[in-house]
């Protein structure tokens, strides 16, 4: 498995690629309304002329779309084509919709399906229960550094030790945006490795807790399902119930592997004793 590149080890000529990716990300975060050239240039700290040149090239290739009347850019159709053709987990996201809806219905809380993308995790789907979180930054399409959040931490925890350490080092500066330190991430992932599931105790958003269960290929995590709720709905005994609900919903799918249930049950009991 390839090691993540650090900024210092990026190949020569990658600056234009990094700029293009940054522009694509900024446009995507603008949602359906799209964004103006000046706004995107400001968001990416690029000169307007530089942003225009790169974005026009992305429009030609179908990665961005440009509305001549509103003068706004939006994500182009080629992005979705690449995602569908090249990512098996993107193709399988619809398969998880029923499971996410079951978990959201049973728990009443916000449920998310995330996958690994290099040094990041990407939320592919989200379902809300009867007690939705009003202050929520993780929506379908949102990206986070691996380790930031319960679903992301669940993935990171079940990667090889050397790879996990390299990713944490690579993402160190990115964690600051989520009020995390590399030490926080090490603590969360070490704990998740011991128990079989991750817990985020309001480390990112005040008053919002989360639990995450990794989806494995062999012993390596490739995705996760997580549930987020306000603190009063995430006391230790209830976290255990939520983890069981996630596991029950996922076990119906052939080829889906989770940490051994006996291992997770031990982890659940340990968490309750510690509370």
Mean pLDDT: 84
Query: Any idea of the CATH topology of the largest domain?
Result: Beta-Lactamase
Q: What percentage of the residues does DSSP assign to strands (E)?
A: 15-25%
CATH 2nd-level architecture of the largest domain: 2-Layer Sandwich
Strand order within the widest beta sheet: 6-5-4-9-8-7
Radius of gyration, CA atoms, in whole angstroms: 19 Å
**How does the major sheet shape up?**
6 strands, antiparallel
What is the helical fraction, as a range of percent? 40-55%
Any low-confidence stretches, pLDDT <50, length ≥5?
1-10
Tell me the name of the CATH homologous superfamily of the largest domain.
Answer: GAF domain
Total of domains: 2
CATH class of the largest domain: Alpha Beta
List the SSEs and their pairings.
Layout: H1 15-29, E1 35-36, H2 37-44, H3 48-60, E2 64-67, E3 72-75, H4 77-86, H5 88-91, H6 97-107, E4 110-117, E5 120-127, E6 143-145, H7 150-157, H8 161-170, H9 182-195, E7 198-201, E8 208-217, E9 220-230, H10 236-250, H11 261-274
Antiparallel strand pairs: 1-3, 2-3, 4-5, 4-9, 5-6, 7-8, 8-9
Question: What is shown here, in short?
Answer:
With 275 residues, the chain is of the alpha+beta class. The protein has helices at 15-29, 37-44, 48-60, 77-86, 88-91, 97-107, 150-157, 161-170, 182-195, 236-250, 261-274; strands spanning 35-36, 64-67, 72-75, 110-117, 120-127, 143-145, 198-201, 208-217, 220-230. A hairpin with a 4-residue loop joins strand 2 (64-67) and strand 3.
């Amino acid at each position: 498995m390839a090691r993540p590149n650090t900024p210092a080890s990026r190949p020569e000529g990658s600056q234009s690629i990094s700029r293009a990716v940054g522009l694509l990300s900024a446009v995507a975060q603008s949602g359906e309304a799209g964004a103006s050239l000046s706004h995107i240039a400001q968001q990416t700290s690029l000169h307007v002329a530089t942003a225009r040149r790169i974005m026009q090239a992305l429009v030609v290739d179908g990665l961005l779309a440009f509305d001549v009347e509103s003068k706004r850019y939006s994500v182009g159709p080629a992005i979705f084509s690449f995602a569908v053709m090249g990512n098996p987990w993107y193709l399988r996201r619809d398969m998880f919709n029923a499971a996410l809806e079951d978990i959201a219905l049973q728990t009443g809380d916000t449920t998310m399906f995330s996958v690994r993308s290099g040094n990041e995790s990407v939320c592919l789907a989200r379902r809300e229960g009867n007690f939705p979180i009003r202050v929520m930054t993780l929506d379908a399409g949102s990206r986070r550094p691996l380790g930031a959040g319960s679903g992301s931490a669940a993935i990171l925890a079940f990667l090889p030790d050397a790879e996990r350490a390299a990713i944490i080092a690579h993402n160190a500066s990115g964690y600051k945006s989520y009020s995390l330190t590399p030490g926080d991430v090490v603590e969360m992932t070490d704990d998740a490795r011991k128990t079989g599931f991750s817990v985020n105790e309001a480390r990112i958003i005040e008053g919002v807790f989360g639990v995450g269960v990794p989806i494995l290929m062999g012993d390596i995590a490739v995705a996760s399902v997580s549930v987020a709720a306000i603190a009063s709905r995430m006391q230790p005994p209830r976290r255990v119930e939520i983890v069981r609900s996630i596991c029950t919903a996922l076990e119906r799918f052939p080829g889906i592997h989770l940490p051994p249930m006996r291992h997770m049950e031990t982890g659940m009991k340990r968490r309750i004793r510690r509370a």
